[in-house]
Design a protein that fits this description.
It comes from Streptomyces anulatus (Streptomyces chrysomallus). This protein has 337 residues and is an alpha/beta fold. It is built from eleven helices and 16 strands. The strands form three sheets. A seven-stranded parallel sheet has the order 3-2-1-4-5-6-15, with helices on both faces.
């Protein structure tokens, strides 16, 4: 795909969009980017800071997004909630790759149906996982030493000062309104849990607990099916992160607990934290940028049209390497072996 055509980042002035744009610029200096938002002055500031980038205003109520008809793009990234799916339709009508990060488990049905109805139009990356799939990839990277995975538990702390700006806060509110139940895989069966079954303590890296609960999130389905794990759960808590408890900026911390068997069938466990001292923004940005890079064929072969998820396209080891470049790292947790 010619690099004269620009990656259109809808919501490119928000935290996720600006972070992903900065990484794409770092990884691929010649890649043209279009920072699209409602405030043209803000979009221009972001674009000017990147170089080789342009600014545009968008109107998500319009099928053409309010963009000039003669502009050509290489991909469309929805770094915001595309409630009318105009961004997706815009991409499909032009045969462009599309990335979505805000639909969540409870909102992906329209995207999946749209992708099925026009299966040969565009590659669609459904990346409405936690941190745009970065946590799934980190967990699969941790699972590489296992011959069999019996159970996966993800425990995430989101600092209330690190929700991702107004768009991120709106996403959390929408998802909590759609369902208060959590989704787990239990003994091979995907099961909705409520009440006491959904409640769980989430342990921070400093050893203290926050009250949390199981949530309905795509990470459960992606991990369960990718690892063929019969028991999978994702618990989530919003509160003061360990970093902020130390008087530092809000930190990102996700605990990954794995149980299964190693070579020869010997039972093993692994418990590690994926952490970032600067919070969730750089981790989410990495997830988005990895997806764009892959869809454009800047790493790996061309991606076929259809519905894709992060673990079907991206190499976990490479993803962890890219996360580490931004300052993320793994640290041991009690029970690690």
């Amino acid at each position: 795909m010619g690099q004269s055509e620009s990656v259109l980042i809808l919501g490119g002035t928000g935290q996720a969009g600006t972070g992903a744009a900065a990484l794409l610029r770092q990884w691929h200096p010649a890649l043209p980017l279009t920072i699209a938002g409602r405030d043209i002055d803000r979009a221009r500031r972001v674009a000017d800071g990147l170089g080789a980038a342009t600014a545009a205003t968008i109107d998500l109520r319009r099928g053409d997004l309010g963009l000039p008809a003669d502009r050509r793009y290489s991909a469309v990234v929805a770094a915001l909630w595309d409630d009318r799916l105009h961004g997706l339709r815009f991409a499909q009508h032009r045969g462009l790759p599309y990335v979505s990060i805000s639909s969540g488990l409870v909102d992906i049905a329209p995207e999946v149906v749209a992708g099925a109805q026009r299966a040969n139009a565009s590659p669609i990356l459904v990346a409405s996982h936690y941190c745009a799939g970065a946590v799934v990839l980190a967990a699969l990277h941790s699972a590489r030493r296992f011959d069999r995975i019996d159970a996966i538990r993800i425990s995430a702390v989101l600092d209330e000062l690190d929700t991702g700006g107004p768009a991120g806060t709106a996403d959390l509110e929408r998802w909590s309104t759609a369902t208060s139940a959590g989704l787990v895989r239990r003994d091979g069966v995907f099961t909705w849990v409520t009440g006491p079954d959904a409640q769980a303590d989430v342990r921070r890296t400093d050893g203290t607990d926050l009250p949390g609960r199981s949530i309905a999130i795509l990470d459960v389905t992606s991990l369960a099916l990718a690892a063929d794990a019969p028991d999978v759960r994702f618990d989530f808590a919003v509160g003061e992160s360990a970093g902020r408890r130390r008087g530092e900026p809000a930190s990102f911390e996700v605990r990954i607990d794995l149980e299964g068997a190693g070579p020869g069938g010997a039972p093993i466990r692994r418990s590690r934290y994926l952490v970032h001292p600067a919070g969730q923004r750089p981790v989410t940005a990495t997830g988005i940028a990895l997806g764009v890079e892959r869809l454009l064929g800047l790493r790996g072969e061309a991606v076929a049209p259809g519905i894709h998820t992060p673990e079907t396209l991206l190499d976990p080891a490479y993803a962890v390497e890219r996360m580490a470049e931004t300052g993320a790292c793994f640290i041991g947790a009690p029970g690690d072996s």
